[in-house]
Amino acid sequence: MISHNFRRALVPIATLGVASMVLTGCASGTSGTGGPGDAGEADGVVTIYGTIADTEAELLEESWADWEEANDIDIQYESSKEFEAQISIRAQGGNAPDIAIFPQPGLLGDLASRDYIQPAPEGVAANVAEYWSEDWAAYGTTGDTLYGAPLMASVKGFVWYSPSQFAEWGVDVPETWDDLLALTQTIADETGTAPWCAGFGSDAATGWPGTDWVEDLVLREAGADTYDKWVSHEIPFSDPAIVSAFDSVGDILLNPDFVNAGFGDVKSINSTPFGDPARALGDGTCALHHQASFFDGFIQDPKNGNATVGPDADIWAFVTPSVEAGGNAVTGGGEIVGAFSNDEETIAVQEYLSSAEWANSRVALGGVISANNGLDPANASSPILQQAIEILQNPDTTFRFDASDLMPGVVGAGSFWTGMVDWVNGKSTEEVLSTIDASWPSE
Amino acid sequence: MSAFLSWIATLPSLAQIPLVLLAFFAVIALLIFFIEIAPRSGRKYTIIRAAACVLFPALIFLALGSVLWAAAAAAVFGGLFFLLDYRSKQGAGYLFQLVGFMSPAVFLLAIGLIYPTIQTTIQAFMNSRGTRFVGLENFIWIFTQDTGIRTVLNTVVWVLIVPTVSTIFGLAYAVFIDKSRGEKIFKILVFMPMAISFVGASIIWRFVYAVRPEGQEQIGLLNQIVVWMGGQPVDWISNSPWNTFFLIVVLIWIQTGFAMVILSAAIKGVPAEQLEAAELDGTNAWQRFINVTVPGIRSSLVVVLTTISIASLKVFDIVRTMTAGANETSVIANEMYSQWQGFEVGRSAAFAVVLFVMVLPIVVYNARQIAKQREIR
After folding, report:
1. What is chain A's mean pLDDT, rounded?
2. What is the pTM of this model?
3. Which residue of B has its CA nearest to A266?
4. Would you tell me which residues 227-266 of chain A have a C-beta closer than 8 angstroms to some C-beta of chain B?
């Protein structure tokens, strides 16, 4: 009898059990461990987690090798291409590294506002005040608290071109946005093919090169104030200023006569990996390409573009022109170093990474720059990087951090990217912008 | 546990494999011991239980280093096993034994399934930080914005197409190769995709769908065929809404083997007498299939359909690997993960609840079918 009753009970229990399985994957404790209490112990080892991988990671480890030995601290660096996804999972799971190098200040802000990140120690705060501009300090600040110091930097919005081709067609580097459009038309007429090449492909991050375009245009057309309001969502994506920036980008990217040189039609932008235009630039099928300062690595890569970069070399670059001549606004990116632990050794490493000493040590190894004022431009390894340092250190430059990196992750590393892909695929600007607006975090 | 894992990590990698396997088997053996062996009566089992009474306290002593705790554990285990041993004389199926031996499983179910279910449901009605009750706001958000509706619709499309198509394909294949020469090899061919992980399968198919601009060499099989036929290369996985169907093909490719194996076994279970009787009545092959075979394998069909339905409701890996939800291909599980990763715990939990509600009817139906069969037997 009992066993019969039990059997009858078994079906609902099994139902609940199986159905629950669907839900278990996503249940997460919202109660965080860590946070601004004491976290971590001084054990001679400091773990660092970041996106910088392969050769870049080796150079990073080389940059602090001497300091490690002198201070008897073992820095263990771990990189992951899935950093953006993993860091929030590791933080929420109580398995965070001592230090994380965030390429996205917005992500640092997300974690900081949820009490996972330690406020910056005094030494770091002093270094930030001494070596970085207020703008840069603000990228490591959430609320009124400084959470970390910037590490490296890059200048975005370069337009790569071939000086010899320009001489052949008798055209000059444009002064204004309208000049750029006129230049594009001239080259199109001259060559009979599309002048611009673009590639948005980047696996799960597909679409990010498109956000750089929009950010450059928002900053140049609407100015720094509007840009800041846009980043903090005081004005929505559907604001006329943002619509106008999309329209301007569309004048080039959505025009089948202007793209996609060497790759196909407008839609091929989405399926072209972002590094591939280097090849088209190198073999001369593409006249103009918009990408950050890091692109010279791709152009000079023998397996890809195999061209030289310099004012008199195969390929050179100018900064995307402003609406009026003489504009000095640029967008850029960089990393912010945030710490989950606050033991002595972690603090020592943080202070070292925020010093001019480290910046010079790393930049001298080549390939990167920093916005640190104590940096000697002569240490930079290539002409484009020297130019980028000059732009960063010039007091007249209006510098703004990459907007998508400042926005909350669900937008900046999510709907903004997919929105750009949809937009290139032919979805209307209004529809794309309202979709992005709807995805903005609830609070 | 973490000390054990850190210790393992210091060993050479080849030595790690047998150790991890050993640890795995030890845990499994312990579970089987509780479920299978322990409830029986007999001297052998009394000895096993007596040994366990010594072993568990010894382990606790090693782990905690406290004699008091070990003594307490010995008392509890000793008492428990004595009671179980005493009661087992009254035969299996006794309620006390059921409770005794099911409690570990029930406990694990409770902390692993039931507690998270309740917690997720509560989170679905809270804001992203879990600090404020927001009512239905998260659900309203899902059903009022484009991507949310698209996500739910896509999931519905998956669950309508994948189970039907893979069951039909699996059934047809099973019928056609039944009793044919080389049946085993034909079965292996279709079953093999089951052995490939979803991510692996997605990467394979991403190559199949790969597109290169016109005039260049196509590395994708499908586009190469299109070009051979004189067509223009198509970007299969970025043109909405057709891209969802191209992703669905991957899951069908995986699940057809599962459907085929189960249904093939069921077809072989249909009594030959019934088929002969139908043949004598003058039916053709199609009529025999519809009127004899299909009713005969009805219960297997239900199992296959419901299992694949649940698998396609939960689909995540394929979408994540192939498009990450871009170009309007997102599904609920993928959106659930993206929102959670972006600290939108409330919205993520709301997606989970929507998925839960969608799974529930299927599971209830399945459970009722199983209950019905029990009654027949």
Report:
1. 85
2. 0.75
3. B213
4. 262-264
